[in-house]
Amino acid sequence: VATETVRPARVRRGGPVRTSEGRREEARLAWRLLIPTGIVLAVIIAYPVIRAIWLSLYSDARFGTPEFVGLDNYLRAITGTGSEVFWQAFRFTTLLTLVTMTLELVIGFGMALIMNKAFRGRGLVRASVLVPWAIPTAVSAKLWEWNFQPDGVVNQISGLDVIWTGSHWPSFWAIVIADVWKTAPFIALLVLAGLQIIPDEIYEAARVDGASAVQSFWRITLPLVKSAVIVAVLFRMLDVLRIFDLPFILTNGANQTETLSTIAYKEAIQNLHPSYGSTLSTITFAYIIVATFLVK
Amino acid sequence: MPRRLGKLWLVGAVVALVLTACGGPDEGGGGDGDAQGTGPITFVAGKDTSGKYPKVIEKWNAAHPNEKVSMIELPEAADAQRSGFVTNLQAKSDKYDVLGIDVVWTAEFAKSGWLVELDQSQFQLAQMLKPAVDTGMFESKLWAVPYDTNGGLLFYRKDILDKAGKKPPTTFDELKALCPLAQQNNIDCYAGQFFKYEGLTVNFAEAVQAAGGEIMTDNGTKVALGAPAVEGLSALAEGFKQGVIPKQAITYKEQESQRAFVSGKLLFLRNWPYVYALAAKDEPANKVRGKFGVAPLPGITGPGSSSLGGLNFAVSAYSKKQKSAIEFVKFATSQENAKEMVLLTGNAPAWTDLYNDPELVEKYAHLPILLEGLQQAKPRPVTPYYQEVTSAIQEDAYAALQGQKAPDQAVNDLTTKLNEIAQGG
Questions:
Q1: How high is the ipTM of this complex?
Q2: Has this prediction a pTM greater than 0.90?
């Protein structure tokens, strides 16, 4: 961030040629101007991260003094007594991320293509597609909790007799459906932004050259919208890997639907194990960073 | 050079933060409380959904102009309330004076040194229900005084039982024997709260107690469970297998199970007394108005025994005005104020006499039956590690009800886990 902000200072704006002293002066000013940002970043990002890592190296003694235990908490999560819960949450979160991202991408892309077409009532379609995204997750989770009740809307409309939150896979799909419903519009929005910067001339040229609709989709639309899609995928991946509110409200982790964030919350806040909770959130943090670099 | 200086500055800031961060965990500021202090105080409790506090506070404030109480509301959800209290108390803050705490938190808060020990002789505990008073005790000392209490009841379809000339069941076997009546009426037989949450702990504890057992004893240092636990859990698990309990009840919390009963789809329901008012209400969605009755919970091998809910009042050990705070606890939990609270909310009082108070019984006819149940009631496990204990219970009880674990296996696994937790988890 820092170097990018500094760059304008180096750009030569007309007028007299700058001496190196003048440039240094400006660089100094730039650094001084960055100080407030630096403080804010340090306080709201560096401090909590470092504090969490530091805490994770201590034991949780509810009624005594915490002791330095090195990496014991990490071993406990990965290979020790906490491993069953941790790896279940890890697998579940990963699978949830892959499945929801795929579905959201396909559905969101479809929505974006429709919204990008010029037709009567397009404004209305765009607005209504975005409604789920505008609803706070906690509210939509509560909504889906009712929908998925045994005598709820989902069973009545589909004619199924599934106890959605009563066993593992139905719970998994309930969470997937609720998440896709809410966030496919978000993908649609980002993809739509990407679609709208593709100039019509390119399509016209392709048509003149005799390209079919399918060809122009694969050869023009997809490559040109790729960067927007990658941004959307990254955003969603970051979100789903630390998903908390939806499963917390919909299933509360029952039937092996704990996610990395729900187990971290339960340890740190409910069981009052700040150190072990910090360990779990530090692992989640590291996992998300690694996953982000893999996608990029 | 200047640029490097700038960078150094940032590095310095981070290092400074790291150093502060590294002060080690749990270094709270703040100081100690003052046992003799008086003055304006705060009363902190979960969101007041029934408007029961303002009147008590107004009355107190009128009589004590120099020790006025102001209310601080915490969220309604129990988890969020607890973290509100814990955050304040871990920081040793003197901002909270009187605490309205859930009955299951007493042991944890007392063991953490967050509560002031109360003088038992200053409260008329003998006139209160013993099980309710016990929820405020830990290691034979009084830490909190009941403001209200709560126990489970068996709601039943009086119209259906009367027509068949049957009485409400007193044991689980009798209940099962009445299930054909549900079938004939095309409704489900029995439900409680079996989703994986606190309500499952309540229902599991009741099953264990109905089989004559307990979950933990000796202030949470010993795990009891054993054969009664297997028996109690088996009764519920078999209930699911045999269809006595409908399969969708695995998703039931209080609200879902109450809806099933009130919409006329259930013959028997275990729930809290609040359902009484809802089932008596005159509205189209209510299909059981005038057709239901209440009875004490059925037993399994022993008499039925409810888990206890309710709210206790305690005083923060970090309060600088403990004298005023204790006076307010006495005032708010007095019999006179309890009666007003019951009239307003229909909640169960801790004072035994109030269950036969004509004015109250006229408005809430279930009170005498509730009293019968409450006298057999037991607190949920009294342990400073309550949260971990209840999570463990939910895990294994849920698996057993789903048929993923045999009840004896589930109780075995649970015993191992609880023993670990009791050792200081």
A1: 0.82
A2: no
